[in-house]
Design a protein that fits this description.
The complex is a heterodimer of chains A (about 325) and B (about 325). Chain A has about 325 residues and is an alpha/beta fold. In chain A, the strands form 2 sheets. An 8-stranded mixed β-sheet of chain A has the order 6-7-8-3-9-10-12-11, with helices on both faces. In chain A, β4 and β5 form a beta hairpin. In chain A, α4 runs parallel beside α7, α5 crosses α7 and α7 runs parallel beside α8. With about 325 residues, chain B is α/β, with parallel strands linked by helices. Chain B has a domain of about 200 residues: P-loop containing nucleotide triphosphate hydrolases (Rossmann fold). Chain B contains 11 helices and 12 strands. In chain B, β1 and β2 form a beta hairpin. In chain B, α5 packs across α6. The interface between A and B is large, with 38 and 48 residues.
Chain lengths: ~325, ~325
């Protein structure tokens, strides 16, 4: 039985561009009409290249940016109407893990202090109770709750350990959703997998939903159940991971999969198929499908005229591409 | 009679002076590269791979101490050259460099074409029109329309700027181009298309490359040979085929297992622990603390063993009768 936790409809976040503070130059359509549903306890990856709007999506959902249009509901409540106590409650229910763990931790606070902060803000009373929760969270992320760990400053920890502290902080308030924006792209290969394993473990053990935002398609197979491919502010495709890998339905997803290689002998002898050009300027995106100027399967008169809606060629597998019309 | 390698690095050592003592970023690295080959120096952050690149081109920061060892470029030890001679004869002309954030190192107030043509203007004394004409040809080779020669850096996307820097590294037709994480800051598709350019240039021009990267998948895209570094040392050096199919060093094997693969059902496995501090590295094998085959023998520095022709491993396992 599906139990939607997060429902997003037509979400848009535009940024107004002004010169000298008053001259309007237009709007950057960073996030431009995104629809999806995330179930309770489900993990979904958002994949896309830089500038595709994936971080804007994260930050809009976190309430850092105000959406220009569209709506999002969390556990049945509209995010646009959240205020005061309800907004604070929402922030406790949504954990955030960002790319740069060092930037996410105040450099002058010990681990203990950094972890106590959200508990104090959200009114967890009693020092003993707070310390018990902090110790439990540190144990859970594999750092151990020794005084040595608790008294260390961020710069004394490795990148992987810092990211574990950030995850512990996200867990403290018992979230129902964790938004992880490129959580491992600054870490080394040997550490990356451990952090992704950790996120996956806490997600399944506590039934937390995970929105895993990444540019690295190669990790999604093992760390997400569903994947959404973003291009130029919109969702090109969304599907269960295995279905997307086996039968990508959008030419952009196909291109991404074709460009991605597994390390193997003989790779150096082959050239990859790469679509021409670069993603469009979001101040003035192309009419119709945003991928059409680069698309190898471009159909003149169709793709450059109307924005394709999401077709559903297979159950639960959506693709915003005119090729999938009527399938 | 054996062929003289294009590049031969012998026992290279480099340290940085810090408040707490010297940090040995490169600690006895020996490597060789033949003409037309691409050697990938692979390693995680802090393993010394970038310091190696900087030592080769002699663009070290101030706190670096004079490097030890030798760097032979076609039979001449260029590390012994005085700086002026190195600048005049080697840098840009015989050996050039593309750095990770090179795209952000272009001068914002000078047109791209003039910057790309600079090696020809300064080192070869070409006229501006002749150098720009050549720059236009190289632009086409790396996949930028020549019209962009007269643009300023901010008018180019990140991927295009990185291509422009690559054009600059290629313009004087050096024997060797050193690429330090050339695509790490770029998107997947841009990355793939720049790797295509490198493959084509290698094939058509016969240029040799040293590619420095932390990314195992990227490394497989260009490598004829792979050298894996760990804590300032090369732990394994092999042909790409051997390295990707049958690596011998335990670290190589664990690293391969840690790489997420799109077309593989088994989950990747991380490597517990972290590399030792280079301020005071432990005696013996530097990977021992994280190694599943750790044995008393590992307390002693492992010798570099040549397992097969041009396949070298710094590990006791192949000779110690350990379990493979």
């Amino acid at each position: 039985m599906r139990q939607p936790l997060l429902v997003v409809k037509g979400l848009q976040t535009h940024f107004e561009l002004r010169q000298w503070g008053f001259l309007r130059l237009g709007s950057v359509r960073a996030l431009d009409g995104v629809d999806f549903t995330l179930d309770a306890g489900e993990s979904a990856a958002v994949v896309g290249e830089s500038g595709c709007g994936k971080s804007t999506l994260a930050r809009t959902l976190l309430g850092i940016y105000r959406p220009t249009a569209g709506e999002a509901w969390f556990a049945g409540q509209s995010l646009a109407r959240l205020q005061g106590r309800a907004l604070k409650e929402y922030r406790a229910r949504v954990g955030y893990v960002q790319q740069d763990p060092y930037g996410a931790l105040p450099p002058f606070m010990t681990v203990r202090r950094a972890l106590a902060e959200p508990l104090i803000i959200h009114g967890v009373r009693g020092r003993a109770e707070r310390e018990r929760r902090i110790a439990a969270a540190l144990e859970e992320v594999g750092l151990g709750a020794s005084p040595e760990v608790q008294e260390s400053y961020p710069h004394q920890l490795s990148g992987g350990q810092q990211q574990r502290v950030v995850i512990a902080r996200a867990l403290l308030l018992r979230p129902r959703l964790i938004i992880a924006d490129e959580p491992v792209s600054m870490l080394d290969a040997s550490v990356r997998v451990e952090i992704l394993d950790l996120l996956q473990r806490v997600q399944t053990e506590h039934g937390i939903a995970l929105l895993y935002i990444t540019h690295d398609l190669s990790t999604v197979r093992h760390y997400a159940q569903r994947v959404m491919v973003m291009y130029a502010g919109r969702l090109a495709e969304q599907a269960p991971v295995e279905s997307l890998l086996a039968r990508p339905q959008h030419p952009y997803s196909e291109a991404l999969l074709a460009a991605l290689v597994d390390p193997e002998a003989g790779n150096a002898d082959q050239e990859r198929q790469v679509p021409q050009g670069e993603p469009p300027n979001l101040l003035n995106p192309p009419a119709g499908c945003r991928f059409h100027p680069r698309c190898p399967k471009f159909m003149a008169g169709t793709c450059d005229r109307k924005e394709p809606p999401a077709f559903e060629p297979f159950s639960g597998h959506l693709a915003a591409c005119w090729l999938r019309r009527g399938q | 009679m054996t062929e003289i390698p294009l590049l031969e690095i012998k026992d290279l050592r480099l340290s940085y002076a810090t408040e707490r003592g010297p940090v040995w970023a490169v600690d006895g690295v020996s490597l060789e590269l033949r003409r037309g080959e691409a050697l990938v120096v692979l390693g995680e952050s802090g393993c010394g791979k970038s310091s190696l690149a900087k030592t080769l081109l002699r663009i070290l920061p101030r706190n670096a101490r004079p490097p030890g060892g030798q760097v032979w470029l076609e039979g001449v030890n260029v590390l012994a050259f005085p700086e002026e001679r190195f600048r005049r004869e080697v840098r840009w002309l015989r050996m050039s460099l593309v750095m990770q954030a090179a795209m952000n190192a272009l001068n914002p107030v000078i047109r791209v074409g003039e910057q790309v043509a600079e090696p020809l203007l300064i080192h070869r004394g070409w006229s501006k029109s002749r150098a720009l004409k050549r720059a236009a040809e190289v632009f086409v080779e790396v996949g930028i329309a020549p019209a962009f020669l007269s643009r300023y850096p901010h008018e180019l996307s990140g991927g295009m700027r990185q291509r422009a820097v690559l054009a600059m590294a290629l313009i004087a037709e050096p024997d060797l181009v050193i690429l330090d994480e050339p695509t790490s800051a770029l998107d997947v598709l841009t990355q793939a298309s720049i790797m295509n350019v490198l493959k084509r240039i290698k094939r058509e021009r016969g240029t040799s490359f040293v590619l420095i990267t932390h990314d195992v998948a990227t490394s497989s895209e260009l490598a004829d040979r792979v050298a894996l570094m760990y804590a300032g040392q090369v732990v394994e050096e092999a042909s790409a085929t051997t390295f990707f199919r049958q690596p011998a060093h335990p670290y190589s094997r664990l690293l391969m297992a840690a790489v997420p693969r799109l077309h593989q059902r088994e989950k990747p496995v991380g490597i517990a622990g972290r590399p030792p501090s280079l301020l005071d590295p432990p005696p013996g094998c530097r990977f021992a603390a994280r190694c599943p085959h750790n044995s008393p023998a590992c307390a002693q520095d492992p010798e570099v063993i040549e397992l097969a022709d041009r396949h070298r491993v710094r590990c006791w396992l192949p000779v110690g009768g350990g379990v493979p």
